[in-house]
Design goal:
There is one protein chain. This protein is mainly alpha-helical and 54 residues long. A two-stranded parallel ribbon has the order 1-2. The N and C termini lie far apart (44 Å). The protein has one domain. The chain is built from 2 helices and 2 strands, in the order E-H-E-H.
């Protein structure tokens, strides 16, 4: 399971279940706090000029 850094994913309730989930064979990974290479829109926004409505 890949988790972002949303507050719910760092809640005590979720963290207490990690051991249970891992014992059932589930791997848990957190995304880095800022990962533009994992977000396709970031690539688009950095390669295309912005168009403003006037």
């Amino acid at each position: 399971m890949v988790l972002d850094n949303g507050p719910i994913h760092h809640a005590k309730v979720v963290k207490t279940e990690f051991d249970t989930w891992e014992s059932q064979g589930l791997s848990i990974f957190y995304l880095p706090t800022y990962s533009p290479h994992l977000n396709p829109i970031e690539i688009l926004l950095t390669t295309r000029p912005f168009v403003r409505a006037s």
